[in-house]
């Protein structure tokens, strides 16, 4: 009478577990890549809406939206009324009021880079004003993951942890 037990050896179980772990890491990598692409697509679509609103405001008023100074302002209604680098920039009710006549203002999801700094929202700057106070040049900026793109906007990489995108008018 032989006492043969049926089952798997410890080595066989470890091989199967390591193969499952390898497959799981490949799947998670693909899912993360798809998440970054989807978020990037949403940001580009939101920025195209802002771009249209700015150009419509220019057509309607003969100048770019003017928040009252040449400082950088948040675009849209941010949850905590701040945007930019760790919330260093504030909203402008004047700017949002002008743009709100043309679109409902989208909100961009914040990004936390590998250094732990939060970058949220989109920003607007009337970069040139006449003596009479008309805004003759402006730009909008936003941040995305380094793997993201900026669509038709100019871009640069900040410390390999973030991509900054900006559009300049005219």
Automatic annotation (TrEMBL):
Signal peptide: none annotated. InterPro entries: N_methyl_site, Pilin-like. It comes from the Bacteria. Pfam families: N_methyl. This is Type II secretion system protein GspG C-terminal domain-containing protein. It comes from Candidatus Yonathbacteria bacterium RIFOXYD1_FULL_52_36.
């Amino acid at each position: 009478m032989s006492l043969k037990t049926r089952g798997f050896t410890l080595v066989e179980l470890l091989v199967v577990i390591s193969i499952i772990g390898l497959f799981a890491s490949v799947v998670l990598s693909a899912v993360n890549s798809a998440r970054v692409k989807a978020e990037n697509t949403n940001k580009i679509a939101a920025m195209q809406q802002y771009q249209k609103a700015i150009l419509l405001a220019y057509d309607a008023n003969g100048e770019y939206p003017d928040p009252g100074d040449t400082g950088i302002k948040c675009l849209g209604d941010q949850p905590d009324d701040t945007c930019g680098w760790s919330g260093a920039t504030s909203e402008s009710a004047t700017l949002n009021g002008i743009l709100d006549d043309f679109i409902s203002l989208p909100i961009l999801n914040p990004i936390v880079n590998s250094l732990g700094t939060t970058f949220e929202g989109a920003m607007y700057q009337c970069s040139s004003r006449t003596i009479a106070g008309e805004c003759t040049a402006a730009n909008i900026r936003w941040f995305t993951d380094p793997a993201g793109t900026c669509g038709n906007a100019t871009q640069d990489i900040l410390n390999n942890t973030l991509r900054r995108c900006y559009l300049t008018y005219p």
